[in-house]
Amino acid sequence: MSKIDKVESEDEFEVKRVCKGLHSRFCKTGRFSTKKEQSVYHFHRILAGGRSLFVGY
């Protein structure tokens, strides 16, 4: 098994676990946390045109 195949297999396993957890009665879904997921928030702002690719510009 190549390294990329191994990584893809691991990713698939983790994604399935997350999906299963999201369907749990203990998980409330909603918007992501702008405090805990700053990189995701920043990326979405870039896509929306609300922020420069480079912080501070």
- Number of individual domains: 1
Largest sheet entry: none
Percent in helix: 40-55%
Poorly predicted runs of 5 or more residues: none
- Number of alpha- plus pi-helical segments: 2
Rough outline = flat
Q: What is the H-and-E element order?
A: HH
Which structural category fits the helices and strands?
mainly alpha
Number of strand segments:
0
Beta-strand residue fraction: under 5%
What gap, in angstroms, lies between the N and C termini?
Answer: 44 Å
Radius of gyration: 16 Å
Mean pLDDT: 76
Describe the structure.
This protein is mainly α and 57 residues long. It has one domain (3-48). The chain is 54% helix and 0% strand. The radius of gyration is 16 Å and the shape is flat. The termini are far apart.
Features:
57 residues, mainly alpha, 2 helices, 54% helix, 0% strand, flat
What's the short version?
With 57 residues, the chain is an all-alpha fold.
Question: How is the secondary structure organized here?
Answer:
Blueprint: H1 3-22, H2 38-48
